[in-house]
């Protein structure tokens, strides 16, 4: 794909642009470099590097002096970026029914469920687990990518014949304007609890940024809201489309009842427009009833019937979410992405309802992320499980021991059911080796992610693979 620079932005240059980049490391010959401001990172300092790598022009806000490529000065490169990216990729968002999912927990589950129910031959997915449709599955660096990548992904979906895009929309993306120019056909709220306060500054700001998604919904679109969430009213107030609600009470557009929870599945009934449908879902946990209700109500709003989606419910699976690992051991092992206080609480509450013996949890907290929740997470885990093992999880520039010290701040001298094993692989090994018949081992925080971000490097690391490795070793030893 190629465009003239003056087709993308008002200027006198008709040079050819081969691509648009905001990271100088990604620049290839003929790319346009846009100096966005990321708060802690000002891209203007990388202009010379971008030009050296072959940038054909740069869009800036500050005076950068004379350069040997065209320099276009604008008031806000951040605001210009999505506009020119949309033009460069021939406005792919207008050829797709855009579905945005936001919330502290459940974004990945709901957006993936929607893709499954609609069909990945017709619906693309963008989020924590990469971006995919029936034709491909690729990795991403962010839950909600920056505009220079996002519009390219949308173009790939259109070119593959997709008519829908189901995407996670995180609060930071909304705050930084990555999706500012996208008008959503459907927007979905899972829940809002305290999270990312290091980025947003306060819970009020976090809620306000989340609710931007609902103000970006088309007037003839739908806002699918969890009425049982304590911040439902703020989302409703911001909503521009028709509000449809889901929850446990009969005053919702779609509500659920007659719930039965089992390891590995949920049985429940949904009620919609005076009709009842019995659901047998492989997505276990009470919280996944809410997630599936949001996905089903979205499909109903888009014109699908229960008959259209019923056969696909059995195929629901979200990588790294309540993923059970069975290699013939006589105890359960689960890998899950839960990392927020709310997500961890809901998961442990669910596990308490299961007919198991002990619960064993391996967990850490990410470095350079909200430090305020660390001690709460430590207390929640120790209070709700039999054995807790605290370890590292993407420590980044922080010392893993310092993070763990914060996690045990509230439990020192109160609980004696925890230990510290900083090396995550060793922590997983310990959990597997101490498990007895009918215990439940839970490896939390990373799901199916394939990396750990350390102080000076990023290493390959996958919780599911680590579990399988240590289970295999244990089973061989016990033969």
Entry summary:
This protein has 16 helices and 25 strands. It has 479 residues and is α/β, with parallel strands linked by helices. It has three domains: 86 residues, MurE/MurF, N-terminal domain (Udp-n-acetylmuramoylalanyl-d-glutamate--2,6- Diaminopimelate Ligase, Chain: A, domain 1), CATH 3.40.1390; 224 residues, Mur-like, catalytic domain (UDP-N-acetylmuramoyl-L-alanine:D-glutamate ligase, 3-Layer(aba) Sandwich), CATH 3.40.1190.10; 155 residues, Mur ligase, C-terminal domain (Protein-Tyrosine Phosphatase, Chain A, Alpha-Beta Complex).
Assess the beta-strand content as a share of residues.
15-25%
Query: How much is the average pLDDT?
Result: 94
The span between the termini is 58 Å
Q: What percent of the residues sit in helical stretches (DSSP H or I)?
A: 25-40%
Q: How many DSSP E strands?
A: 25
What's the alpha carbon Rg, rounded to whole Å?
A: 23 Å
CATH architectural grouping of the largest domain: 3-Layer(aba) Sandwich
The CATH homologous superfamily of the largest domain is termed: Mur-like, catalytic domain
Shape assignment: globular
Strand order of the largest sheet: 10-9-8-11-7-12-13-14-15-16-17
CATH topology (fold) name of the largest domain:
UDP-N-acetylmuramoyl-L-alanine:D-glutamate ligase
The stretches of 5 or more residues where confidence is low (pLDDT under 50) are: none
| Main sheet: strands, sense, barrel | 11 strands, mixed
Q: Number of DSSP helices?
A: 16
**The first-level CATH class name of the largest domain:** Alpha Beta
Number of structural domains: 3
